[in-house]
Structures are given as C-alpha cells and as structure tokens.
C-alpha cells in the first residue's frame, strides 16, 4: 500500500472515530472510560498520520 493510500485510510478511520465519539456523548450510559479509549485510538491514528506525512 502506498503512503498516500495509507494516509487516506487512516484519515477515514479518524473521521469515523470522531463521529463515534460524538454519537457516544449523546448517551448518558456511555462511560468516561469508553470515551477515553476512543479518544486514545483517535490520537494514535493522528500520530501515525503525522509520522507518515513527515517521512
């Protein structure tokens, strides 16, 4: 897979996680830990995108 394709794939995953986080915030049954886990996943993806762009 090319770097550009990988960046596009990761960007899409990042957007889907953002949507999921926003959706989860609407429900009081969502725990802080669930949101934290999703945010960490999102941050890892963002970091990987940054690494690929700088390489």
**Tell me, what's the shape?**
elongated
Mean pLDDT: 96
Instruction: Report the biggest beta sheet as strand number plus sense, adding barrel if it closes.
Output: none
Briefly note the structural class of the backbone: mainly alpha
Overall number of structural domains = 1
What fraction, in percent, of the residue positions are helical? over 70%
| β-sheet strand percentage | under 5%
Helix count equals: 2
What is the radius of gyration?
13 Å
What's the helix-strand series? HH
How many strands appear in the DSSP assignment? 0
> Unreliable runs, pLDDT <50, ≥5 residues?
none
What does this structure look like?
- The protein is mainly α and about 55 residues long.
- It has one domain (about 5-55).
- Helix content is about 85%, strand content about 0%.
- The protein is built from two helices and no strands.
- The longest helix has 23 residues, at about 5-25.
- The two termini are about 15 Å apart.
- The model has no long low-confidence stretch (mean pLDDT about 95).
């Amino acid at each position: 897979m090319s770097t550009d394709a990988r960046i596009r794939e990761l960007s899409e995953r990042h957007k889907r996680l953002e949507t999921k986080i926003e959706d989860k915030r609407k429900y009081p049954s969502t725990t802080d830990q669930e949101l934290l886990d999703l945010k960490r996943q999102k941050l890892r993806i963002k970091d990987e995108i940054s690494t690929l762009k700088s390489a």
